[in-house]
Amino acid sequence: MSQNLRIPGPTPIPPQVAEALGRPMINHRGPEFAALLGRVTEQLQYFFQTTNRILTFPSSGSGGWEATVVNLFNPGDAVLAAPIGVFGDRFAKVGETFGLNVTRVETEWGQANDPQAVVEALSRLPEAKGVFLTQNETSTGVMNDIQALATAIRGVRPDILICVDAVSSLSCVDLQMDAWDLDIVLTGSQKGWMVPPGLAMIGVSERAWKAHEQSRMPRFYWDFTRVARTADKGQTPYTPPVNLFFGLDVALAMMREEGREAIFARHQRCAELTRERAVAMGLELYANPAVASNTVTAIKTPEDIGAKAITKALREREGVVIAGGQERLDGRIIRVGHLGYVHEPEMTACMDALERQLQALGYQSPASVRG
Amino acid sequence: MSQNLRIPGPTPIPPQVAEALGRPMINHRGPEFAALLGRVTEQLQYFFQTTNRILTFPSSGSGGWEATVVNLFNPGDAVLAAPIGVFGDRFAKVGETFGLNVTRVETEWGQANDPQAVVEALSRLPEAKGVFLTQNETSTGVMNDIQALATAIRGVRPDILICVDAVSSLSCVDLQMDAWDLDIVLTGSQKGWMVPPGLAMIGVSERAWKAHEQSRMPRFYWDFTRVARTADKGQTPYTPPVNLFFGLDVALAMMREEGREAIFARHQRCAELTRERAVAMGLELYANPAVASNTVTAIKTPEDIGAKAITKALREREGVVIAGGQERLDGRIIRVGHLGYVHEPEMTACMDALERQLQALGYQSPASVRG
């Protein structure tokens, strides 16, 4: 039985991309790879909406956190982190691991950052050199308004380094690196990009490059300068994940043909379909609906039916794979991914299966109980 | 024209592996991935010849250097590095980058490490906590005798941390992690493993784990403890390169069926064929023939014909891709890879093409001149 993989990444791979992944290897120091790297970088700039440099690393998306911390900062630097869930919290922890002085703006899980609260926290932290934000918090299904946050932050701190984790949102929803004046935007291949995991991509602003020049944090693998210097020769400092580049090249061409706005609209339609179906079943969304994510939907599990029973039934009886909750949300929510290679029919099939399996597990929706 | 890719990595991919690379994605937190990780790890242990833990990282092979340095050592720790070329030198530089006190044993390029010289250097460095060795130096085509080196080192320093870069040799030539009492053995997917680049694999001895417990170097992405803890649950701390695991699983099954000794013998035959053909053309090997590598052959270019002209002619006229020299060897040598998915016919075709293109470039072998 072929699976309907509906976790928030890795996401399904289109057949054209799957074919490209198995292409014969090439010399990563030769002209073919130089052309490939150039083409991919230019297409990425279209989706990052930037003329900035975009650096690639053979790593998972979370490598982007470490790269940001060790390239832009020095031990002891103050940063404000605004986590709204597990992944934002980890970004903050990476900062702490490398000696940054991290202050957190606390936000109730299920909610987005309040720009005013971030600005107030910054006013109490005049020494802050950077802010860590998450565009889409995969653990809670909440999407921040990065434009509003960046505008508010720039209003009080025009030169602060705004570092945005856009791992599970970039290319799926609008993010304008240049127009919104963001300094670091990081993402990973296995989310909206329709490619297997293993490639991190990081946009770096001129302000970030200046900070990089002042940073004395020890670094080798993540060093922006080494990556940029070799990129100028159409290469990478160490062997790149060649077959992921093959796949990304094909995926980006497909995405470019579909167009940015059409992709955003498709993600919005799939998200709305998912949320509407959940609510129609009498389920409660975990995220505040006003800030619900267009790439992942978190749904509270019915009181008597734990998340594990639901994910197991869907996997074993329906071939539909969804995710449970993480850390304090373990067992309390299920999460449905709708990003990357996704269209309405897969989401309808997923929610049909969820409805069937909930019924099989004895779930009665409040509506049907009332009825 | 399909290429005969004869660089020392990435190496060609067998068709079965190519097919596996495009398989549908799976949940990296689900039972399929747990089974896959377990299977791959056990097969890797067979090739590392160890019962030690083997950790995997989404990274190029060179990430293994950084992982070794930040997990086992503290800033200020003394280590002895024994580079015999570009890659050994980079391993030493990574140590220096993170504050280790690195002393180098100097060895003429083209030669292997002399165990006696290493032991003498250690006697002058009683505070040394570790030794950095390279099994196969890809830049010079030299293979060290790691068994002899480890035996000599253990004779004087039974508890020193022996850290071996086996990126371009492991699985192609004999390396017995346990019997030779090695503490770190690191490799990368794109070499002998017949898989695209993007996955680093690191064997960690009990002695290395004890050193890890004493190390206070800041680390997040490379942290052995995080990787080991999640491995115990059949997972990885962050999204693993799922499709490289698919490929590695298939490649390891093929390799297991062929058997370790048969693979070593095949590499030896391909290497001998390559060296014999080069010598028969009147070319000079860069490496001392007594320590010539079984995975990559470095050949001095004829006086009047630079490496670039040769690699270009081979690529454009023959579809054969070989490598030039690096750093101080740039332009002075060509390098032919014979590792991973390689058999005699490809090497014969490669050397036939080299002979044709050298003649086309006006090369006259000393033998034919004499004749």
Description:
- Two copies of one chain form a homodimer.
- Chain A contains 13 helices and 14 strands.
- The first copy, chain A, is globular and about 65 Å long.
- Chain A has 371 residues and is an alpha/beta fold.
- Chain A has two domains: 4-9 and 259-370, Aspartate Aminotransferase, domain 1; 15-256, Type I PLP-dependent aspartate aminotransferase-like (Major domain) (Aspartate Aminotransferase, domain 2), CATH 3.40.640.10.
- The mean pLDDT of chain A is 97.
- In chain A, strand 6 and strand 7 form a beta hairpin.
- The first copy, chain A, is 42% helix and 15% strand.
- In chain A, strands 2-10-9-8-5-3-4 form a seven-stranded mixed beta sheet, sandwiched between helices. In chain A, strands 11-14-13 form a three-stranded antiparallel beta sheet, covered by helices on one side. In chain A, strands 1-12 form a two-stranded parallel sheet.
- At the A-B interface, helix 1, helix 3, helix 4 and helix 9 of A face helix 1, helix 3, helix 4 and helix 9 of B.
